[in-house]
From TrEMBL:
Single GO MF descriptor: DNA binding
DNA-binding listed as a keyword: yes
Protein origin, superkingdom: Bacteria
Record-annotated Putative DNA-binding domain positions: 6-99
Keyword flag DNA-binding: yes
Protein name: Putative DNA-binding protein
Keywords from the named record: DNA-binding
């Protein structure tokens, strides 16, 4: 048997793809351990390593669930999710989706949303860097250009719809203090991004600002954003434009805007 074949058989057994564990016939017994026990040592060490990756990426969720609760979640995730990544950094990224689809964790929107927020913070940390655009760039726009102007936002920016009170619960779990009970009947909107000091931060949004920011992230024009807000609130056009302008000013202050994209044919 070639070394490559032996390695492939060993890997399949470690990953649980060889239910009959045919690899045991290729493992020599030692003076202390039979082949099955020698294999078990390697297999258990591999699972512990994966569980360690999950615990490292989801420290707050671990605190919220407790060690025993998180261990049960990690074991179930490892059983259902063989690692296909050379970079261990990406193994844990699907844990929130797994919780959403799997009992009993899918019974708690609050815990799922703690995992989603923790995942979003990690993704924001890894996002491509870009310099913030100064608000002075708006001075180059003519009044008639405003409806068509678009904005490019920092790659770390993401808007989350979460359980009402999840930010407070997340912060309590991070501090290992008693978690307030989120209101799973209502929503909370959070913006997550990496600021100019390279710190990953978040803040709460109103439903209207969350809608506007999602439209901006999707590449919609300022005019489109205003029209959607006006339709949503049945408000006066001038009042809506002023409100959208206040959102835009805050986005510049947050360092979210990296480019003002002028309408075609303008400088």
């Amino acid at each position: 048997m070639s070394l490559a074949t032996l390695q492939a058989k060993f890997q399949a057994a470690i990953l649980g793809l060889d239910a009959d564990r045919n690899i045991l016939a290729d493992i020599n017994a030692s003076r202390r351990l039979e082949p099955a026990m020698r294999f078990h040592v390697y297999a258990r060490a591999y699972r512990l390593r994966l569980a360690g990756l999950l615990a490292e990426d989801f420290k707050v969720l671990n605190n919220a669930l407790g060690n025993d609760g998180f261990h049960a979640l990690a074991e179930a995730y490892i059983d259902a999710t063989p690692s296909h990544h050379r970079n261990a950094r990406w193994y844990a990224r699907d844990l929130p989706d797994f919780m959403q689809a799997t009992a009993p964790w899918n019974e708690s929107r609050g815990l799922i949303d703690i995992a989603r927020l923790e995942r979003a913070l990690a993704d924001a940390f890894d996002a491509t860097d870009a310099a913030a655009c100064p608000v002075a760039a708006l001075a180059a726009l003519a009044r008639e250009d405003w409806p068509q102007v678009r904005f490019a936002l920092h790659a770390s920016a993401r808007v989350l719809t979460l359980t009402k009170g999840i930010a407070a619960a997340f912060e309590a779990a991070a501090a290992e203090t008693p978690c307030p009970e989120p209101d799973e009947t209502q929503d909370e909107f959070l913006l997550v991004w990496r600021n100019g000091d390279a710190q990953v931060v978040y803040r709460e949004l109103t439903a209207a600002e969350a809608l506007a920011l999602r439209e901006a992230l999707a590449g919609k024009s300022f005019g489109d954003i205003c029209a959607l807000l006006q339709f949503r609130d049945e408000a006066d056009a001038d009042a809506v434009a002023a409100r959208a302008g206040s959102y835009l000013a805050q986005w510049f202050a947050d360092g979210l805007i990296i480019e003002v994209r002028n309408p075609p044919g303008t400088l």
